[in-house]
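S., here's the first fold you wanted:
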Amino acid sequence: MRRLAWPLALLGLAATGCLKVKERRPAEAPAFAATAAPFPVGGDVDGDGLADALDRCPTEAEDRDGFQDEDGCPEPDNDRDGVADAADPCPNEPGPGGCPGAGLRAVDDGGYGFTLERGTFRRGESIVVRFSRPLDAPAGQQRWITLAPAGSPDGTWGEWKYLPSGARSFTLRAPAPGRWEVRLHDLYPRVPYRVLARAPIDVTP
């Protein structure tokens, strides 16, 4: 009977409130630091009038030319014909030289333009370039024409030829397959790398 004395005594103390039982509380959940959003809520980082949360290109301003302006991204070549909208006479209609049609007219500077019969040639085929006016040139200077990779700097050239004063046309040979530009350059040696007119072409095998 002595073995039950202590348990019974403890029960008596608990019943009278003399025994204090420490209450165990669940451990508090760890605090998580708030993660900052990549762009301010409701902000407009690129200042194009479209909130960053809705802007597909939040760091590039929309060009707002009436073409896909709702996505927040600039479209420098709406019709994807290889001619930038700033130089494309038909920015929303694809075609060689910027506009649809059989002929191809170069984007020119100062009236020194040219036309090509089409925008696609086979490798080795003749490319007849017809100038919009006779090419005049002072003594000791010559304009020149070249085929250069599309999108390359104006000082880049492939096949090239000096053009005689008074020339009305010239024939080039289509190079290796790819995207190229026919470029008419201003007077050499005074302004050798100024492009007066250019037109993109595609060369196939």
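And the second, which I think is the more interesting of the pair:
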Amino acid sequence: MEMAVAVAIVGALFLMVFVGFQKGLGASKSAQCVNNLHQIGVALRLYMGENSGAYPPNRQNLDYHTSSTPDGVWEHDFLKAYLGESPFKTAGGGTDVTWREAGPFWCPADAPRKEKNAALSYGSNYYRGLGSASITQRFQSEKYPSKTIYMTDIIRNDPPGPGTAYIRLGYTYPFGSISDPKAKWAVDFRHHGRANLLFLDGHIQSYSASELAGRSPELIQ
């Protein structure tokens, strides 16, 4: 009887320690994610400082791509240069790029992407760096930089591929009318039900899905 009680006590203590360890590990990963986004925010400000406030062109920027600029160069490629990081082997994070060379663009809590050996854990604001907006729309013209997202935890739920995803109206859960967390592009609430968001002014804040739902015009455009 005493042995059974002792075993039960030891088991309960082990469970408490294990749960505490898991919570601590999750908090550590979230802190690293915040640090990643902070570094990306610094790189963004450095890039804009050298480009008259313009945003790094994204892959959809057809106005930027010329015969001398390969289609497939993404905002991550421009920002990596300001992070002391080596460029991706393939522009934009092609099929031969893995999370091991993603540097700050890979979140340690992003287990699904690691399983796919994919490179990028974060998605950027589709409307900052799109087309001529990367030339004509500049940071100094932003009305609400502290309320406008630049980058966030995100995952591509379409078939595998290491490429990026965007925060975009009509595509990204849980913004606007998108209610399916398995939509093609979805914010990934990987930190105990919360996602970390980097805003244009450089500050980082975490949100739950319910806190973001329906707020796309305010937070994206």
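Why I say that: The mean pLDDT is 74. Residues 189 and 195 are 4 Å apart (CA to CA).

Talk tomorrow,
H.
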